[in-house]
Design a protein that fits this description.
mainly alpha; 3 helices; globular
Length: about 60
């Protein structure tokens, strides 16, 4: 099976999380949703700003 990477972007409250959860349910097992907010806020305790530490970690997780 071919690996897929789906990136959702949009304004706050635009429904990104709802769409991501629906996609995860559709694709079933062996899927993972990585929320930038979760990485930034809960894993790194970093603020959302230019040069945030979250970006390198997100890239690493995606690779």
């Amino acid at each position: 099976m071919m690996a897929r990477l789906i990136i959702l972007r949009g304004n706050s409250g635009s429904g990104k999380t709802s769409v991501a959860k629906a996609l995860q349910k559709r694709f079933g097992h062996n899927t993972m949703m990585i929320s930038q907010d979760m990485v930034r806020r809960e894993m790194l305790w970093a603020k959302d700003s230019i040069g945030t530490k979250a970006l390198p970690l997100l890239i690493n997780l995606l690779e």
